[in-house]
Amino acid sequence: MSKPINFTIVPEEPSDPAAARRSYANFCTVAHTPFDLTLTFCDVQPLSERDVKTAEASEIVKVPIVARLAVPFSIVPGLIAALQEQMRAAQETQSAQTPGWSKGPLH
Questions:
Q1: Distance linking the first and last C-alpha atoms of the chain
Q2: Residue 94 and which of 36, 58, 69, 104 are 20 to 30 A apart at CA?
Q3: pTM surpassing 0.90?
Q4: Low-confidence ranges of the chain (pLDDT < 50)
C-alpha cells in the first residue's frame, strides 16, 4: 500500500523570460464538451469606422484569439473559488485606494 503525501503545486518560472510572456485579454467566451470546459480569451480593440459598418450589417465583430484553454470539469470548482477570492481581494484593495468606490461587481 502506498503512503499518501501532501504537496503544493507551484508554477516554475522558465529560465528564458521570453517564454514567460503574459498575454492580455479583455473578453472571454465559455463553451463545453461532455469532457471539459473551454475558455477562449480574446483582445477586443477599439473598432474602426469600417469595423462598425461591417458590424452593423452582419452583427458580428471578429477579434483575435489570445489563448484557448480546455480544462477538465474536476478543476472548475477550485478555479471558480480562486477567481472569487481574487475578486474579493482586488475589490478590497480598490475600495481602500479609492474612497467612495462601490464594492459591486466589476464589468
A1: 51
A2: 69
A3: no
A4: 107
